[in-house]
Amino acid sequence: MSKASQTSQKVSSKGVFRAVLGKEVQHGLRDRSLLILVILVPLLLAGITTLAFGQLDRGESVHLGVVNHDTGNLSQILVGQVLPSLESGNKPLISTTTYQDDAAAEAATKNGTVAATIIIPSGFTAGVAAGDPPALTLVTGGDTSIGVPVARAILTGYTAQISTVALAIQVATSGPGAAPASATVNSAAADLRDPVTIDDVTAGQRSLSAAGYFAPSMLILALFFSGQIAARGLVAERERRTLTRILLSSTPFWKVIAAKAAVAFGAAIASAVLMFGVFSLTGTVFGSWPVVAVLVLFAAAAMISISSLVVLIARTEEQAGSLSTVMIFVLAIVGGNFVPLSQTPQILERLALFTPNGWTTRAFADLSVGASDPWGVVAPALWVLLGFTVAAGTPVFVLSRRMARSSVV
Amino acid sequence: MLVIAVNNLRLVVRQPIMLFTTIVLPFAIITIVGIALGSSPNQVTVGIVANTAADPLGQKLVAGIEAAPALHTTVYATDADLDRAVRRGEVVAGVIVPSGYGADLLSGQSTQLQFVTTPNQSTATTARAVISSVISNQVIAVQAGVFSSTQTGRSATTEIARAATLQSQVVTPTVTEDSVASPSSLSLGFNYTGPANLTLFIVITSLTSASALVLTRLSGVTRRMYVMPMARSTVLLGEFLGRFITAAAQALVIIGFCALVFQVHWGDPWAVALLTATLCTFGAVLGMLVGFVGKSTAQVVAFGPPIGVALGMLGGCMWPLDITGSIMTKIGHVTPHAWAMDGYIRLINHAGGVAATLPDIGIILGMTAIFAGLAAVAARRDRTA
Questions:
Q1: Nearest to A171, CA basis, from B136, B147, B110, B155
Q2: Is pLDDT of A208 > 90?
Q3: Residue A136 forms contact with B (CB below 8 Å)
């Protein structure tokens, strides 16, 4: 072979990488699939989930109805002191609306105007004093907020305190050496407070906002979707017989794969930059940026490898699309990307640790709340993602190579 | 027309992967999500670190917290594990029961629990309130005994024991609960995830199958069908019928599976059939529209599944719209998914038959008609091109 033709082969080999990369980008821009995956998908999914779960940021308040038929001091204590005493973020958690009759309160509960209604019966205070208190009533509707469990807890604590006072007086004024029954003893008993105090300890510097959780979660989905680009491109080229022509040009196969993977990686990074950029403008804090960047890179590599593996198992683009969709869906559910971790049962929390997105989601959450050692908290996730990349990337390379050889033969 | 439909069906049936993703995998998702939603409805997740070895009162407190209906608890071995779980949002809050909890209480001393949470968590306040109520219930005798000891000078241990004995004589005010919830209120678990995934997968499968129509167009098969001696509507109906039958088969299997395995009572069978047929019609028409509009299979595969997921999110197939607030609920009703879910939930809760679901069916049919018109226009443009 002459020196001129050898030189021309080396040039064309280098140029093929750029040509394949350019072709993928051009096709992706022309049919807008790249724009859909980079811009539309992540922002759309993150926007929807952030809006849907935005109440995590607003902080739920509880609106209860009250119907007070009693005129004694015990009911006044419940309504005037106990209910307003619960706070969240230095603000009262509970607001109340007083109704004059049970029917109005029940209607308000049924239509969701109030989360629940507390009905204090007539003669409640007198009944407690006489040792035969009438029952309190908690009216509930279809409300699924924190209002009903809060109301139940308040009433449970309140009735327990009434029992404590009554029992304390009875124990103190009975038996040998008992204290004489007096208003002083009664007053002292009424001032009893729980011997168990609850001290607040803060984990992290910030609370986990809806955007702080779902922006990375939906980015992970976008990484899965865009991760198909490389492998789907190969499958499409095989179907159109253009893969044969590329390989017959003496281009090393790994360069073709690398060019396609570069497009997928570039799309993934562009998605991440766009996603974090847009949500940062809304005030969302994701944590230390160098650590976030490294986590995104490792996550992209893992998701691209796994998506590519799924695509290469398929024989047609339609199969690839179906299989990928279901794989992404299952992993996203198990990994906690659609529903906050605190609302999934323990079994799913454990299963999530078998998914790359489960580890990634947790790492992002840790960074978002401001863990004191960001590199320390993401290190386990980085190792796991590297493992997934290698475990999925190796068969991807093997299957791609096999596909290329069968195309040329 | 039938030949076109049968050909489309054959394309699906001959591909095991397509059969797997269309029929089998939805079951896995229904099972997982049904378990997730059904196991802990309306519960707040909390973590506990229990340093309660040889501490009966401490163990009683932990048991009381675990038994609280409003809480779903997870026990962690160390404070660091609990701290990490709270940071990551795996639990809303955590409580650390110190060693010596019971000993301190029995000796008349006050004691402290640590409540771990991230800042400004209103849901954590719920957990705190519930834990406080558990504590209040459990320390009644301890408080009374300690009080008596301070008033009389008698031994605290003795007084606490006396208080425990006398506690049964004290009448505690009771709390009765009345529910005024309407019958159509959502019950979670498989009664939700069944119709949710039925709705979701009919649309996603239809969107994914659009790539086959794109391939048919780009390879010239559709053009050749147009020049054959048959009406254009025959071609369109054939494409529609194949997709409709695929969606209907998928729906039938999901409905049967949920009824047999998960005991989902779907309600009036005619109403369910009509609603499902309407949904399948919408899915088939949507698949056709995307198939005629798509410029490449890559575009359709990039567009279809994410859009299907997004529509499912908006329409209440991923989580009940009840929890998203009124604005998102209204936005969600731009999708046929939300109307389908409304209809299925109403039927499952035995609130009516065909008449009760007619509004939902009517709206879905209206959306279908719009998309059908768009698909016809797109098909005409494709034919002209």
A1: B147
A2: no
A3: yes
Q: Can you tell me the distance from the alpha carbon of B246 to that of B205, in angstroms, rounded to the nearest whole number?
A: 9
DSSP letter at B334? T
pLDDT of residue B187: 55
Residues A365 and A381: their CA atoms lie apart, in Å, by 12
Q: Does B122 reach chain A within 8 Å, measured CB to CB?
A: yes
Q: Do the domain assignments include residue B181?
A: no
Q: Is residue B197 part of a domain?
A: yes
Under a CB-based contact definition with an 8 Å cutoff, are residues A51 and A284 in contact? Answer: no
Q: Supply the DSSP symbol for A82.
A: I
Q: Which architecture characterizes domain A60-202 according to CATH? A: 3-Layer(aba) Sandwich (3.40)
Cβ proximity of B352 and B346 under 8 Å: yes
Order of all β-strands in the sheet with B111-117: A196-202, B111-117, B93-97, B44-50, B71-75
Distance CA A12, CA A31 (A): 27
CA distance, residue B50 to nearest chain A CA (Å)? 15
Domain span including residue B255:
2-37+191-381
Do B84 and B225 belong together in one domain?
Answer: no
pLDDT in tens, chain B (385 residues): 666 666 666 666 665 556 666 666 677 777 766 666 555 456 788 999 999 888 988 999 999 999 988 888 999 999 999 998 888 888 889 999 999 999 998 888 889 999 998 876 667 888 888 899 999 989 999 899 989 998 999 988 889 889 999 998 888 899 999 988 765 445 556 788 889 889 988 998 888 788 778 878 887 777 777 777 767 777 778 888 888 988 898 899 889 888 888 888 888 899 999 999 999 999 999 999 998 888 877 777 777 878 888 898 889 888 778 777 778 888 889 999 999 999 998 888 766 788 888 999 999 999 999 999 998 888 888 766 6
The values of phi and psi at residue A154, to 5°, are -60, -45
Number of domains in chain B: 2
Q: Among all residues of chain A, which has the CA nearest to that of B172?
A: A163
- Give yes or no for A61 touching B (CB within 8 A): yes
Q: Taking CB atoms and an 8 Å cutoff, what residues of chain A touch B324?
A: 51-53
Which residues on chain B are in Cβ contact (under 8 Å) with A192? 143, 147
Residues 6+ positions from B330 with CB-CB distance below 8 Å? none
ipTM above 0.95 for this complex? no
A2 by Cβ neighbours in 10 Å (0-12 / 13-18 / 19+) ranks as exposed
CB contact under 8 A, A137 and B178: yes
Cβ within 8 Å, pair A366-B314: no
CB contacts of A338 in chain B (<8 Å) are 313, 318-319
Mutate to test the interface with B, among A343, A349, A373 (most CBs of B within 10 A): A343
User: Please, where are the H alpha helices in A193-252?
Assistant: 210-226, 228-240, 242-247
DSSP string, B18-72: HHIIIIIHHHHHHHHHHHHHHHSTT-EEEEEEE--TT-HHHHHHHHHHHH-TTEE
Residues B48 and B159 in one domain: yes
Residues of chain B with C-beta less than 8 angstroms from the C-beta of A199: 112-115
Interface of B with A in 93-112 (CB under 8 A): 94-96, 101, 105, 108-112
